[in-house]
What we know:
The protein has about 130 residues and is mainly α. The chain has one domain. Helix content is about 65%, strand content about 0%. Helix 1 packs antiparallel against helix 3 (about 70-95), helix 1 (about 20-50) runs parallel beside helix 4 (about 105-125) and helix 3 (about 70-95) packs antiparallel against helix 4 (about 105-125). The N and C termini lie far apart (about 70 Å). Keywords: Membrane, Transmembrane, Transmembrane helix.
Amino acid sequence: MEQNKADWQGKNRRKTPIENDKLYRTMVGVNVFGWAVFIAALIVFHYARPEFISGVQDFWGVTGRQQWSASLSTYLVGLLCGCVALSLSVLVMKRKRTRRKSDNVGLNGLVLLLVASLSLVILYFEFN
Length: 128
């Protein structure tokens, strides 16, 4: 029993613009939010790390913090874990949405996952 295409009353999703796809819009929003969290982590990293004391500052007796800020380091690890979670959710959504060979790979989520994961590993070895 074959149906005629003229009788079909559904919506042709293959011709729906990508901007109207709710899953795609959610995925882009989560991806942008993940990168914003990563930028916040970079700002926290700047203030949490030990201060650099140059030779001139050492000669003049200028003191600086030689260790990581404990409270800011906790925030840094939390932000980086959030980046990993957000990028994993983007990759899961991308996996659900991508069905054809012609679909884009979408490297943003993968790059964010790799950079945040490597940052967490480096911080782990820095503190231990």
